Amino acid sequence: MPDVFNWPRKDEFYQRVERLNLHGLHFQHIELCERRAWMYLHKVNFAQWYARVQTGSALHATRYQRDHSVRGLFGLAPDRIDWEQCIVYENKGSGGAVEASSAQTAFYALMLSISTGKCWQAYTHILTSSRRRKVTLDDARLEKLWQASMRLEQ
User: Fold this and answer.
1) Annotated domain spans of the chain
2) Taking a C-beta distance cutoff of 8 angstroms, is the pair 126, 133 a contact?
3) Which of 24, 68, 75, 80 is buried most deeply by CB count within 10 Å?
């Protein structure tokens, strides 16, 4: 059974996420580029114009069957959730941008931890190599997510 989740900033973080309508890609973008994050926050998104993004989207759509239990999770769009073991998975086409993809996956685990009161685990699944990368939701990761949310609010 997962441990009880207790983070002193959970309520304030959750309120900021709700107020700004943040989701996983915001946390990915803020790790990659502040300008890109600002544009994404303001609904300006050029990603679909890039061949690598198009290839990744095609892989995403064809390499696995999406977990339908994630539907209806407002602002959360992880690729798979193991509700019994409290594990969230995010699929990525390649192993690049490790910190950015880890931030996105950690955001999902954090929001599920806040919502359920249980400590969730997170994994990034690399589709091109069929490998899993664990994303630890420790104090350092929580602080990075907190700081990222503050930067997104500016």
Assistant:
1) 10-153
2) yes
3) 24
User: In this predicted model, what pLDDT tens digit does every residue of 54-108 receive, in sequence order?
Assistant: 666 566 566 655 555 555 455 677 888 999 999 999 988 776 788 999 999 999 9
Q: What is the DSSP letter of 136?
A: -
pTM score above 0.70: yes
- Tokens of residue 109, six digits: 């685990």
Contact 134, 90 (CB under 8 A): no
Residues 31-46 have pLDDT tens digits of 998 888 888 888 777 6
Whether the CB-CB separation of 145 and 107 falls below 8 Å is answered with yes
DSSP assignment, residue 120?
A: P
140 neighbors 29 (Cβ within 8 angstroms): no
Q: How far apart are CA 100 and CA 70, in angstroms?
A: 21
